[in-house]
Amino acid sequence: MKGLFNFKDMLKKAQEMQEQIKKELSEMRIEGTSGGGMVTVILDGTKNLISIKIEPEIVKSGDIEMLQDLIIAAFNDAGAKVDQAMSEKLGNLGLKIPGLTDV
Predict the structure, then answer these.
(1) What span, in angstroms and rounded, lies between the C-alpha atoms of 53 and 29?
(2) Interhelix angle for 64-92 vs 2-27, to 10°?
(3) How far apart are CA 101 and CA 99, in angstroms?
(4) What is the helix, strand, coil percentage profile of the chain, to 5?
(5) Confidence of residue 28 (pLDDT cuts 50, 70, 90)
(6) How many CB atoms within 10 Å of residue 53?
(7) How far apart are CA 30 and CA 47, in angstroms?
(8) Pairwise CA distance, residues 83 & 93, whole Å
(9) What pLDDT is attached to residue 8?
(10) Which residue, 9, 18, 52, 102, has most beta carbons within 10 Å?
(11) Alpha helices by DSSP H, 28-63
(12) Average pLDDT over residues 2-8
């Protein structure tokens, strides 16, 4: 029976760790940029878009396709940084998750 109690304790600790990680991810803010800072996006740790900033000069040019490309590039930049932060965080906890911790 002692093994069963240890398993319950381990499960409880794992659930607590999962909740803590979820909380930290929702509070994380990662910035991505493109076009030399012409477009900046902020994502949380779950890659939800928090904010986007576009410099006025880019809008004045009237090149909508370029603006769209810059937004995508900034989002992808931030997404890659989120992946890296997750990998480091999980690695520091001693967790190895294929696809996340080998980034």
Answers:
(1) 14
(2) 150
(3) 6
(4) 60, 15, 25
(5) very high
(6) 13
(7) 9
(8) 15
(9) 84
(10) 52
(11) 56-60
(12) 72
Give Cβ neighbours of residue 73 (< 8 Å, ≥ 6 apart). Answer: 34, 35, 39
- At residue 64, the pLDDT reads 93
Take residue 53 and report the two structure tokens written for it. 């900033």
Q: How far apart are the first and last CA of the chain?
A: 40
Q: How far is CA 39 from the centre of its chain?
A: 18
Instruction: Read off the tokens for 29.
Output: 């803010």
Angstrom distance (rounded) from CA 34 to CA 20: 32
- Residue 82 near residue 28 (C-beta atoms within 8 A): yes
Q: What is the DSSP string of 69-83?
A: HHHHHHHHHHHHHHH
- pLDDT (mean) for 49-55: 97
At 97, the amino acid letter reads I
* Domains of the chain in sequence order: 2-92 (3.30.1310.10)
